[in-house]
Amino acid sequence: MIWKFNKGGKLIKILYLIIAINIYAFCLCYIDKIKSQKKAWRISERTLLLVSIFGGSIGFYLGMELFRHKTQKIKFKLGIPLIIILQAFTLYYLYFKNIISF
């Protein structure tokens, strides 16, 4: 099955979903940063990583850099960029195998 970007198409809906997940990941990074400063209950690292894996990696990375949050932890410092690279290669693979087209 080849999915194409077209008006009202499946990939447009997926694109909106990915944008929403990235905004959510960005907000989670901000909320966790504020909670860490107040020594309050925190969002688990597992949750932050799972949101990144399921499409929020760019939003979380931008939040990391903007809020200077989780930048000293190796699993985030290396893990989030690695997730972004793996997601980019996945899109590249799907595109050249004609599973999706733009």
Verbal overview:
This protein has four helices and two strands. The mean pLDDT is 89. Helix 1 packs across helix 2 and helix 2 crosses helix 4. The protein starts with a strand and ends with a strand. It has one domain (26-101). It is elongated and about 50 Å long. With 102 residues, it is mainly alpha-helical. It has a two-stranded parallel ribbon. Helices cover 72% and strands 4% of the residues.
Secondary-structure map with pairings?
Layout: E1 3-4, H1 10-37, H2 45-67, H3 74-77, H4 79-96, E2 100-101
Features:
102 residues, mainly alpha, two-stranded parallel sheet, 4 helices, 72% helix
Straight-line N-to-C gap: 14 Å
Major sheet: size, sense and barrel closure?
2 strands, parallel
Give the neighbour order of strands across the main sheet.
1-2
Secondary-structure element pattern, one letter each:
EHHHHE
Instruction: Using the CA coordinates, give the radius of gyration.
Output: 16 Å
Strand content: under 5%
Global shape: elongated
Number of helices: 4
- The residue-averaged pLDDT reads 89
